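ok so I'm stuck.
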Amino acid sequence: MTINSMSGILCVCMAFILGGCAERGISGSSKNVYTTTEGILAVEAEDFYKQDRNEKRTWYLMKGDRSTGPHPDLDSSHASTSSGGAYLEILPDTRVTHDDELIRGENFSNEAGEIAVLYYKVHFDEPGRYYVWVRAHSSGTEDNGIHVGLDNQWPESGQRMQWCEGKRAWRWESKQRTEAVHCGEPWKIYLDIDDPGIHDIHFSMREDGFEFDKFIMTRDTTFRPTGNGPVPKLLVE
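replied:
not stuck anymore, here's the structure
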């Protein structure tokens, strides 16, 4: 039996015990294609259509008031304050504090696209440079990083998204961790869309325990999302 199969069985068992681990929290089942409206793309994190490279860490759907996921998690659920009442968390979370062992390629990956890759099908009306915003919930210093990619590519401009401020609350951010500024520099997280039409957007793990609620892409450098952010719009073909 493969690890993914075991994870799926575990999820089903936990669903009966804890009251709600949707199948798409393991494998993804969304057939939705989201599109830009007035130059802004908005997508709920849980609406991915596929997940792979999840042998060591997996994104799980968090929904309802339960305080644990398929693996032990010290955090309580934050679904009640999330957009749409659900979010994703990457588990197991073994590096909670700086004193916990950092294991590269397992609970930490500075290599984008290496561990737990999510896939989203999206449509862009116009090409251009789109800045990426993510709504995340960070409880400490070791759960506040993620990578973003495009069409199976992981450009430098999508690596090492970083959160430092706004702990223990949902917070929108669009900053890149750099050698000069570890808490992240603005306007460095973006993806260049060369052609309009349908593309894949990806997210992958940098640190386990990351809680992912929603993402936005916009060409407007003055845009600042607030609250739950814009309502996602489906592409109707």
